[in-house]
Predict the 3D structure of the following.
Amino acid sequence: MNTAAKPSNTAAKPLAVAHRGDPYRHRENTLPSVESALAAGADAVEVDVQLTRDRVPVLLHDRTLERLWGDSRSIDRVTTEQLAELRQGPLAVPTLAEAIEAVAAVDSRRLLIDLDDPVPVAATWSVVTELGAERSVAFCGPVTAMLAVRELAPAAEIALTWKQPRMPVRALLDDLRPRYLNPPFGLVTPEFTAAAAAQGLAVSTWTADLRRTMRRLRDTGVSSITSNRISVLRSVLDGRR
């Protein structure tokens, strides 16, 4: 993200990114989870976006509401009005707009929007621009989704999710212009980070939940680490026990 180290500066402290908020303390992809992650010192909060039946971007990883909300319906068959009926105390399925506003309320923090496919891209970007939040969000996801983002948003910050040990081909990088290559942590080595830097890319990685993994990744020169345990990651990056 804009506050991240340049690819050549491996001595800088990596960004601490909260995976779906603070899911060990609050249900993932909810506003209490996002707010808890910010309070724990996250530099950015990663969230997943799906579209409701009325084409409103909301925070949800799965295509159905079953796992988190005990409702077997697919999210694309439920309206935002119907979603409100699923509220469980302080917990509800938030809209993307609500999440952007929650993060924008904290200085210098950002929202990392994970898009698995191109379908939600246009509606997502519409919300971002309506709120004037172009500089406070970034995007991650696979090639097809990120190409759709780039077509709508020439200046958007992109982390290309990448699950192969070899680097992307140059033609793809020229079209997509990502700032980050975003592999799972098992692929990250000092050699991988160096190869990415040779292509002008920083490395962001996910999802590290053990201290020893966090320390190993930090020492490879990555620019961003995503974790479900944001307070632990914050303490590792800050050199605290």
